[in-house]
Design a protein that fits this description.
Blueprint lengths: L1 E8 L12 E7 L2 E4 L11 E7 L12 E8 L7 E9 L1 H10 L2 E11 L5 E11 L21 E5 L3 E7 L2 E6 L8 E5 L4 H4 L10 E5 L19 E3 L12 E6 L5 E3 L3 E3 L10 E6 L2 E6 L2 E3 L6 E4 L2 E11 L10 E4 L2 E11 L5 E3 L3 E11 L5 E6 L6 E15 L3 E8 L3 E17 L1 E9 L15 E14 L3 E6 L6 E13 L7 E5 L3 E7 L24 H8 L2
Parallel strand pairs: 11-15, 14-17, 15-18, 16-19, 17-20, 18-21, 19-22, 20-22, 21-23, 22-24, 23-25, 24-26, 25-27, 26-28, 27-29, 28-30, 29-31, 30-32, 31-33, 32-34, 33-35, 34-36
Antiparallel strand pairs: 1-4, 1-8, 2-3, 2-5, 5-6, 7-8, 9-12, 10-11, 10-13
Length: 549
C-alpha cells in the first residue's frame, strides 16, 4: 500500500515562539514511517512524500487502520504531539483484491488532539495493489457479549430510564442549561440488555448515573466508549420493536471512542433502527463503529446541530433498508470522515432537513448519498435546503449522488451542491429523478404537481460507471427542475461496461465540460463555464459573474 502524504492545513497548536515545525509519523500495525520535518512551514505544511507499507488482508471482524500522528519538532526538548487522524482501510483493501488495484485520491481528513478537539486537516491519498488471495468472509452471530462498553453524555445528571420491551430509551427530564456530565454504563444494566424478555420492565425507574461512574465536574473526560455491544437475536424481543438504543430530548450529547455496536441484523433487517436520536441539540458522534444494524445504523430526527466524525458503518450489500445515516426534520448536520458500506443509502437526507454538510467519506457498497425520496404523501410538503456533499468516493454502489422525488409530491429541494466526487464502478453515478417509485406500482400518467427542484450543482465529478447511464436527469416538466448545472464531469465506462450515455428529459440544464455529453432543452442564457465550490444559487452577484463568463 502506497501512502501519499500531501499537506496539512490549520494545525492549531504552536510553541512559545508561536512556531510549528511539523512532521508526521505514519503507522500501520507494527510498521512506521516518518516524514521529513516541514521546518518553518507552520500551520500549513507541505510534504508531497510517498511511503510504502506491507498490509495484510483483514479478517471478517477486523477493521485495519492507518494512523497519522502529527508532531512538532523541538530542538531543545521532546517533540510535541499536535494530534492525529485515523483512516479505515478495509474497504480499500477489499476493493483492491477484487479489482487488482484500488486508489483513494488525496482528500482531507480531520485532525483531533488529545482532548478530541478539532485541530486542522491533513491531506492524504492511498493506493493499494494486492499480492494475496481473497479470504472467505465469515460473520459471527450470537447473543450479548460480556463487555465493558461505556457511553457518556453532557446533559442533566438524572435520566428517566424507560425500560420496556420495545427498546432501550433514554429521556432527559428537561434540556440542560448547565454543562453537567453524566455517565450511562451499559454493563451496569446488563440485566436489561443481556437477557431481554417480552414482559420485563414495564415501569419507569429513576437512576442517578453518577452512581455508575460519572464525575460531572466539568474537567474529567467522561465522553468515552470502549469495548463492544452486541444485540440479541430477534426472537428475544416482541414484534413491535422499532429502535434498539434511543436518545430523546438531550442537549450536548457526546458519544466517542473506539467501541462498536453490533446490531446482529441478520434476523432483524428492515425492522429495527440501531441508534436513534430524537429532539437532541448539540449532538456529537466521533469514531464509532456500527456493524450489521437491523435497519438504519444511525437515525437523526428533529435535532438541531449534529457533528459526526470518523464514523465506520458496515452491513452486507444484500441487507435491505440498512441506511448508514438517516437524517430527517433536522437543522445543521456536519458529517466529516469515515467509511460507510450498507445495503441501502450510505446517507439519506429526508424532508425537513436544512444546512447539511457531508465531506471526506468513502461509500460502498450501498445506494449512494440521496436527497429524498421526497413527496411520498402528496398532502405533506417536504422541504430540503442547503446541502453540500464534497470529497466523497463511491465504490461499487448502486447509485452515486442522487436526488429523488415521488410523482405528485409536494415540497421542494433547493441549493444542493455535489462537488469533488470520485466514482469507482458505480451503477448510476449521477441521478436526478422525479419519477421515483417507492412501492413499484406507480403509473406514468401526467403529473398534477411535483416537488420543486432548484439550484442544483454537480461539479468536478469523475470516475467510472458500471451501468450504461452515467448521468440520468429526468424531470416531471420543464418548470419543475430549474437552475440545474453540471460542470467538469468525466465519467467513463468501468471494466466490462461497453459504453456510457447521458439521459436528460424535461429539463433545462446548464452544462460545460461534461462527458458523456448532455442533450437537454437549451437555455437562453450562456452555458455554465465553471462553478466555484462555494457557489450559492441565492447569491445574485455570483449568478451575474458566471453569466458573463
Amino acid at each position: 500500500m502506497e501512502v501519499n502524504l500531501v499537506d496539512a492545513h490549520g494545525l492549531s497548536k504552536s510553541d512559545f515562539f508561536n512556531k510549528i515545525d511539523p512532521y508526521v509519523l505514519i503507522q500501520y500495525r507494527s510498521q512506521e514511517h516518518k516524514s521529513s520535518i516541514a521546518k518553518g512551514q507552520g500551520k500549513n505544511p507541505k510534504w508531497n512524500e510517498k511511503f510504502t507499507f506491507r498490509v495484510d488482508y483483514p479478517g471478517a471482524d477486523e477493521q485495519p487502520t492507518l494512523v497519522l500522528k502529527i508532531m512538532d519538532h523541538d530542538t531543545f526538548s521532546s517533540d510535541d504531539y499536535l494530534g492525529q487522524t485515523t483512516i479505515y482501510l478495509k474497504e480499500l483493501l477489499e476493493l483492491g483484491v477484487e479489482n487488482g488495484t484500488a486508489e483513494l485520491r488525496a482528500q482531507k481528513y480531520s485532525v483531533v488532539d488529545s482532548s478530541q478537539s478539532y485541530s486542522g486537516d491533513i491531506r492524504v491519498g492511498l493506493t493499494f495493489t494486492p499480492r494475496v488471495e481473497d479470504e472467505t468472509y465469515e460473520e459471527e452471530f450470537g447473543g450479548w457479549k460480556e463487555n465493558q462498553w461505556k457511553l457518556f453524555c453532557n446533559s442533566t445528571n438524572l435520566f428517566d430510564e424507560v425500560l420496556n420491551a420495545n427498546s432501550v430509551k433514554l429521556m432527559a427530564t428537561h434540556y440542560s442549561t448547565v454543562a453537567v456530565t453524566v455517565t450511562f454504563v451499559l454493563s451496569v444494566i446488563s440485566v436489561l440488555l443481556l437477557k431481554p424478555q417480552k414482559n420485563l420492565f414495564t415501569t419507569i425507574k429513576h437512576v442517578n448515573v453518577k452512581d455508575h461512574g460519572a464525575v460531572g465536574d466539568g474537567k474529567t473526560d467522561d465522553s468515552l466508549v470502549t469495548g463492544n455491544v452486541t444485540a440479541s437475536l430477534k426472537n428475544a424481543w416482541p414484534n413491535n420493536v422499532d429502535t434498539w438504543i434511543k436518545f430523546e430530548h438531550v442537549t450536548n450529547l457526546v458519544i466517542t471512542g473506539p467501541g462498536s455496536f453490533n446490531g446482529n441484523g441478520g434476523s432483524w433487517w428492515n425492522q429495527c433502527e440501531a441508534l436513534a436520536f430524537h429532539d437532541c441539540r448539540g449532538l456529537t458522534l466521533n469514531g464509532l463503529t456500527s456493524i450489521n444494524s437491523p435497519r438504519n445504523h444511525i437515525s437523526i430526527n428533529a435535532c438541531d446541530g449534529a457533528t459526526i466524525t470518523n464514523i465506520n458503518l458496515k452491513a452486507p450489500e444484500n441487507a435491505s433498508n440498512t441506511d448508514g445515516i438517516d437524517i430527517s426534520a433536522t437543522n445543521g448536520v456536519n458529517v466529516n470522515g469515515g467509511n460507510i458500506g450498507t445495503g441501502d443509502d450510505c446517507i439519506a437526507i429526508n424532508g425537513g432537513s436544512y444546512n447539511i454538510n457531508i465531506t471526506n467519506l468513502n461509500c460502498g457498497p450501498g445506494h449512494g448519498i440521496s436527497v429524498g425520496s421526497l413527496g411520498r404523501i402528496p398532502s405533506v410538503k417536504e422541504v430540503v435546503s442547503n446541502v453540500k456533499v464534497s470529497s466523497v468516493n463511491f465504490f461499487n454502489t448502486q447509485n452515486g449522488v442522487r436526488i429523488k422525488t415521488v410523482k405528485d409530491g409536494s415540497g421542494s429541494a433547493s441549493n444542493i451542491t455535489f462537488s469533488g466526487i470520485g466514482m469507482n464502478g458505480v451503477q448510476n453515478p449521477i441521478v436526478l429523478s422525479q419519477f421515483y417509485c417507492p412501492h413499484k406500482n406507480c403509473t406514468h400518467k401526467s403529473y398534477s404537481q411535483a416537488v420543486q427542484i432548484s439550484g442544483v450543482t454537480f461539479y468536478d465529478i469523475h470516475g467510472t460507471s458500471a451501468g450504461p447511464n452515467a448521468i440520468d436527469i429526468e424531470c416531471a416538466n420543464e418548470n419543475s427542475c430549474v437552475g440545474v448545472a453540471l460542470s467538469k464531469i468525466n465519467i467513463q465506462p468501468a471494466k466490462g461496461q461497453s459504453g456510457v450515455i447521458s439521459i436528460c428529459k424535461n429539463a433545462n440544464v446548464q452544462s460545460s465540460v461534461v462527458s458523456p455529453p448532455l442533450n437537454c432543452t437549451p437555455l437562453a442564457a450562456a452555458s455554465l463555464i465553471e462553478m466555484p465550490l462555494d457557489y450559492n444559487h441565492n447569491d445574485k452577484s455570483q449568478q451575474e459573474a458566471i453569466a458573463t463568463t
